[in-house]
Here is the input.
Amino acid sequence: MSRSVLITGGNRGIGRAIARVLAEAGDKVAVTYRSGEPPADLLALGVLAVRCDITDPEQVEQAFQEVEAAHGAVEVLVANAGITKDQLLMRMTEDDFTSVVDTNLTGAFRVVKRANRGMLRARKGRVVLISSAAGLAGQAGQANYAASKAALVGFARSLARELGSRNITFNVVAPGLTETAMSAELTEGQRAAVVEHIPLGRLARPEEIAAVVAFIASEAAGYITGAVIPVDGGVGMGH
Ligand code: NDP
Here is the structure.
């Protein structure tokens, strides 16, 4: 069955890998992108790319209208777009904190709330929120980012309770460090220090996160809601 899927920040990194796997599985996939041009490989797969900055409610509304016109109401939403502005607390500005929360947490709220309209009407839906291992364990220098990612857990679990009877599931996927532009900002030393604590001894590949998202968004995962699924090479081990 071909579903209407929307992935925020689907033009690169983890979001792009999620878009690929779902488009290849036959879903009608739309991605939002904020800058640059949408990648040719996704366009070749028939993916619809809509420009949207998720910190702007009007752009979110416009993006949903474009997706609904082309693919119908969104049935699967992956809130993936996110940013980091790493800094030690003493040097972290108010803007470093609020801009990260506005994108990672309030941005997720904006798209989830808008998608929920159609899901309520359809009496079904799948929402997947991309959090981070840093949100579960904490990470020095990432208090803003970790707080925004941890908050997604409470957000998803509250909605899982609120909307479970409407057959809408809310789950959180928490990747460990993954090979994307975001992790490329690390120095070799920082990277080695991280890898030392990963039982599988390497970073994740975006496709490995995408495979888990594809499952949790599938019909087969219909009885999973309010779950937090780490894809972190064994770093968390239940913590
Ligand atoms: P990238 O930096 O490669 O991509 C981030 C995506 O989010 C881009 O598409 C970017 O758009 C988009 N984005 C950022 N801000 C906004 C905004 N205001 N409005 C719309 N889109 C926006 O990151 P990753 O692929 O690595 O990360 C994807 C998700 O996974 C993020 O939520 C991240 O926190 C999470 N994650 C990543 C990990 C990693 O190690 N890479 C580990 C754990 C979690 P644009 O191209 O226009 O900037």
In short: The pocket of NDP is lined by residues 8-9, 11-15, 32-35, 52-55, 80-83, 103, 107, 130, 132, 175, 177-178, 180-183 (CB under 6 Å). DSSP finds nine helices and seven strands in the chain.
